Amino acid sequence: MRLIALFATLLISTAALAAGDDAEQLYRQHCQSCHGSSRLGGSGPALLPESLDRLKPEQACAVIRNGRPATQMAGFASQLDDSQIERLVDYLFQPPAVRPVWEAADIRASHIIVNRPDSLPAQPQHKSDPLNLFVVVESGDHHVTILDGERFEPLTRFASRYALHGGPKFSPDGRFVYFASRDGWITLYDLHNLKTIAEIRVGLNTRNLAVSDDGRWALAGNYLPGNLVLLDARDLSLVQVIPAQDLAGKPSRVSAVYTAPPRHSFVVALKDVHELWELPYAGQQPVTPRRLQVQDYLDDFSFTPDYRYLLGSSRQSSGGEVIDLDNGRKIAEIPMSGMPHLGSGIYWRRDGRWVFATPNIRRGVISVVDLQDWKPIKEITTDGPGFFMRSHADSPYAWTDTFLGKKNDEILLIDKQSLEIAHRLQPMPGKTAGHVEFTRDGRYALLSVWDKDGALVIYDAHSLREVKRIPMNKPSGKYNVGNKIGFVEGTSH
Ligand code: DHE
Fold this sequence. Notes:
The protein is mainly beta. The protein is about 15% helix and about 35% strand.
């Protein structure tokens, strides 16, 4: 009996091995030329479990079968049958036998200068207001549209790296914009000349990036490898790689990096160790982190308007902790049970006091907190969990979505004083709506319909009348240059 079982196990594992070999063979034959011999990416994106994290295996099969419209990814339906495609996808979702590395030499070797900024005119070469441009990320076909913020007409549209994520960041004068892709590419683009300046691959799986308030440095945070990569913001050349590890040497992934302009520092959340880092950039290189102890791992955080305090939380916790950045002490804990998406939180004044509000990814509530005594003010019940929130100093409403709920085609407008839902908009029934950004003067609000046949829908922010609809391919985020460089009230950092 035992012998039969052993024989069966041997047969199964030999078959599994053969299936693995076969899939690897398929990869070499059909995928390697674009996605790289070690699956780290080439002209196509990396195909590692970390990079495919956001794709379901069925979706990956569909991409291999049918290709991706408007990209170089062709469909393989005529060359691979369904079972070969499934074996290939199984293989791609397994970690490679040897853990991939991406070191300073790899980063340097990936650096591409497309145009030298000093070879280009320093004045805008278009007639639009440079501080009222919108940078719109279209995640459906991985493109970026630069939009005039008065006429709402595109100035240009170009292919981005695969899967940009997080808000793009800007130089203090608004001339340059910096994008980070999930698979590690940073792109520097000149909005005056509508040209790419440089690109560099800082890691294999990147979280986001921040730009210093003096415009000299860009800092990217990575999951894989777990580190920070400091770049010269003028041309993206590599300055320093800072491994993310605590004092005892325990390694960590980086959850998020933001700039704190009045502090002239970057602040970094670490996902696997109980430390929060501040990196002052006004001093000399190399940069040394100041380590603050935190109670929980931090997945995300937000600042108070004066950047003295930080409100951070982990995705597992049932609340947030408030850290005084000056002395490193925890001064409060705030119960927030719905997994707050703090990076999207915003603040405004209510009854003479600052309040902070954030959507929650797990529960359909908006948490509103008093920023003076850190007491929860209200949980506003919505129709489902949401991702984003935006307002403008001139708007009476905070605009938010119920992205992950049943009514995800709605946008809710919350009255910033009464904290009640004042209006519901439904830009395209049945299609997910989310992420709003205002024009610089706050007169119009631009809203995304997240669909391949989606749109950017522009509303008069006061009358709530629709003024224009621009068809777009899954426009994820849009960012107004003036609002972003001013770090204005109502926007995320
Ligand atoms: Fe995001 C911003 C984290 C999933 C679209 N997201 C951010 C930021 C963080 C973050 C820390 C702020 C970075 C910045 O702007 O510099 N996001 C996370 C997650 O941890 C989470 C839940 C899981 C993950 O896979 O990373 C997550 N995010 C998503 C999505 O599924 C979204 C909807 C689609 C996508 O593109 O992946 C998404 N995240 C966005 C967008 C922003 C963002 C559009 C910028 C918002 C802004 O207005 O600034």
